[in-house]
Write a structure and sequence with these properties.
Elements lengths: L3 E8 L3 E6 L4 E6 L2 E3 L21 E6 L8 E5 L22 H15 L10 E2 L2 E12 L1 H5 L2 H9 L4 E5 L9 E13 H10 L9 H4 L3 E6 L4 E7 L2 E2 L5 E3 L4 H15 L6 H9 L6 E4 L2 E4 L1 H25 L5 E5 L1 H16 L5 E3 L3 H5 L1 H28 L5
Parallel strand pairs: 1-8, 8-10, 11-17, 17-18
Antiparallel strand pairs: 1-2, 2-3, 4-6, 5-6, 5-9, 7-8, 9-10, 11-12, 12-13, 12-14, 15-16
């Protein structure tokens, strides 16, 4: 019988961040897909198994949860090279998009087929049966609208199959994914858990535990502002907004293409240009290092002003707030602009995470803490029930 493996997956608008098992495996895959055909040509097919599977994810997905079933996709890095690559559009709901599910299933399948998991999941010829206890999340707005219930019901009680087609190392393997349990957490609540608790859910930040704080989580398509007081998220005052960084990143990408004739593969390439340590806001044009500061500053400052307006409005309604933490990939992109605005305007007590990885992985880490705690308690309850069932020996 298949064992259950813990998975914490943050389906971010820029990329998927996933943590598995006992923190022994992580995945980070660009959230980009492209429809494809079965017979995609491969250059140097005999060398396919020497390549990194993450650079050649080519799959067919079968699932009753999908609106369009049995479709073949290029995923992640491979999809960026396609003319028909799609990223999640501004205004779309994460819980309603096939792309969210395709990325989720692909990520779990990539974990399930690893040689290290052969003793965890049964294999019969080329088929792997994988069972997961999943912790994931949705934007606050979608949870407040009750969409987490429908999203969870799409996942539990069904078998979702990922078939690896022309994928390095895994070509010809099929993974049947089942969920033992699925927990869907609101993203703002998850950020709070990650701020104040360690992996065993013990409090590590006593200074924060009784403070009134805001957490502004800026994502690709949406922004959540969680309002924390009395150690709880105030569901009534917490707000979700249809404002993320994707549209602005797309505008930067388009203007670079128009002005410099440079085609960037994805929004992720734009993020890399904006946030990297060396040669920030520069690209290579015909072999020459060229500044795109004028483009990035104008577009991102405009977005930062909108984000700052959201902060101001929520803070005014929660006037006894002591600090606001900015988290998420979008915060990392806008950090310098928001800091500059705050210094010249209201001077709120705000904080960013200087460690880029800590900010970007915050949701996945929080889901991991919450789902491992749930799984541990469930195991203990099961053990107690099994003990009670055992007949008393004379």
């Amino acid at each position: 019988m298949s064992k259950t493996r813990v998975a914490a997956v943050d389906v971010g608008n820029d990329s998927i961040k996933a943590i598995f098992g006992e923190l022994e495996y992580e995945l980070n895959i660009p959230n980009i897909i492209a429809r494809d055909t079965e017979d995609r040509p491969v250059i140097g097919v005999e060398e396919l198994n020497d390549k990194n599977p993450l650079d050649g994810i080519h799959i067919k997905v079968h699932s009753p949860a999908l609106k369009e079933n049995n479709v073949i996709y290029r995923v992640g890095n491979l999809a960026t090279k396609s003319n028909n690559a799609t990223e999640l559009d501004p205004g779309s709901s994460k819980s309603e998009e096939d792309q969210t599910l395709v990325m989720l299933f692909a990520t779990l399948a990539l974990d399930a087929v690893r040689a290290e998991n052969e003793n965890v999941f049964p294999r019969s010829k080329n088929v792997v049966d994988a069972n997961y206890t999943l912790g994931t999340g949705l934007p606050l707005r979608e949870v407040k609208e009750g969409r987490d219930v429908g999203y969870r019901s799409k996942l539990v009680g069904s078998v979702h199959q990922v078939e690896f087609l022309v994928t390095p190392k895994y070509q010809g393997l099929k993974v049947n994914i089942k969920f033992n349990e699925v927990k869907v957490y609101p993203e703002g609540f998850a950020a709070y858990i990650n701020l104040v608790m360690d992996n065993q859910l013990k409090i590590i930040n006593k200074d924060l535990i009784d403070k009134r704080i805001l957490i502004q989580d800026i994502g690709g398509l949406s922004t959540d502002i969680a309002v924390i007081k009395n150690r709880n998220v105030d569901d009534d005052k917490a707000q979700g907004f249809n404002l993320g960084v994707s549209e602005s990143l797309e505008a930067v990408r388009e203007e670079i293409r128009t002005k410099h004739g440079i085609e960037l593969d994805s929004r992720r390439d734009v993020v890399e240009i904006i946030t990297r340590k060396n040669d920030r806001n520069h690209i290579m044009v015909k072999g020459s290092r060229t500044s795109v500061h004028d483009i990035t500053d104008r577009i991102l400052l405009e977005l930062a002003k909108k984000q700052y307006r959201l902060l101001r409005n929520v803070w005014q309604k929660n006037s006894q707030t002591e600090i606001c933490y900015f988290v998420g990939g979008g915060s990392n992109v806008l950090k310098e602009y928001i800091k500059a605005l705050n210094n010249s305007l209201d001077g709120y007590n705000i904080e960013f995470f200087e460690d880029e990885k800590e900010s970007i992985w915050m949701m996945a880490n929080a889901y991991y803490k919450l789902i491992t705690d749930f799984a541990t308690k469930a195991e203990k309850q099961k053990a107690v029930k099994e003990t009670i069932k055992e007949p008393v020996k004379n």
